[in-house]
Amino acid sequence: MAEIRRLLMTSLRADPAYPPLAFATDWVEAIAARVDHLTLITNWLGDWTPPANVTVHSLGGEREAPRPLRLLRLWAWTWQAFARDRCQLHFGHMTPEFATYVAPICRLLGRPNIFWYAHGKVSPAIRRALASADLAVTSSTRSEEHTSELQSH
Description:
Layout: E1 6-14, H1 23-32, E2 37-45, E3 54-58, H2 67-83, E4 89-93, H3 96-109, E5 113-116, H4 124-132, E6 135-137, H5 141-151
Parallel strand pairs: 1-2, 1-4, 2-3, 4-5, 5-6
């Protein structure tokens, strides 16, 4: 695969004021420093100014948008990220549902679907994401054990 210069990333929340996920904006900024363009689709957008090479789309969690509308937005913006923004892959940060929902678009367009998670328990949502992802990455030994176990079956 060619060097990744344009990336689609999904994340639950882009909000430096929300302590459990405040680091996610740091991740976006660090990744954006290494690519030409990053498109971020997030469920919830807080008060944050992204780098100039980052396009942010909020699914509307902060405005209590209905789930069906969020799903339609996810599909539309994923398609746009690949077709218009020429993103080369999807990197889903702790978003098993998003990794599962964008998988058909990734497959249709030949774009890798990478799912990052760190969780000791493998829920049904994580099982579906692992099954639909081209690659699962983690920082957790327990998650790695589950990933290896699931991929061997």
